[in-house]
Amino acid sequence: MRVPKQYFEDFWDRKSGYETTSQLFRVEIGSFALVSRPETSKRNRVGVHNWFTFNTTDVVPLDEVAAIHLKLSILIKDRKRISGVFTRLPGPHGLYELGFSGVQLQFRRPENVYIVETPSKGLTSVLECDAPESVLNPGCQLNFRASGMDVTLNFQRSDLPNWRKFQADTTRFLNCATSSGA
Fold first, then answer.
1. What secondary structure, in 3-state letters, does 62-103 show?
2. What pLDDT, in 10s, does the model give residues 77-95?
3. Could you give the count of Cα atoms lying within 13 Å of 75 in the half-sphere of its Cβ?
4. Which residues contact 137 (CB under 8 A, 6 or more apart)?
5. Is the entire prediction scored with pTM above 0.85?
């Protein structure tokens, strides 16, 4: 992967020939410009959350990510009652929300698990979001594949309407970073 040097904050990421199985990026919403750790701290102190993070890796097949998120949100005593068959209900912003049919469950904390599925490509995206008002700053985690890598992207729940743009911008960035012409 070839990425402008300023996107790598840690010295080992800048070493020629360095290999890793994961890389974290923090970028501004809209411009996709780097947001450094010190800048993130300044923005957090004044309540400005106009950035998101994404991590590239290759860990778990995407079709297993939704089940993992949903099962981890359920209290341990109830996990044994799960059959693995999920219901898909229309959700916000072009998403489907996952649930379990016919099983009354208790959850560790309120959250929503959403997916994007198409007949031609199957499961393409998985989102796990804190339920509104369940925590002080509810967030979302978006999982998808781009440029042969698993990507985990984190953002504020209030930015859920922008999930497609975040995924598209990140995909464009990674396609450019991994193209032979870079």
1. HHHHHHHHHHHCECHHHHCCCCCCEEEEECHHHCEEEEECCC
2. 443 444 455 677 788 999 9
3. 7
4. 49, 156
5. no
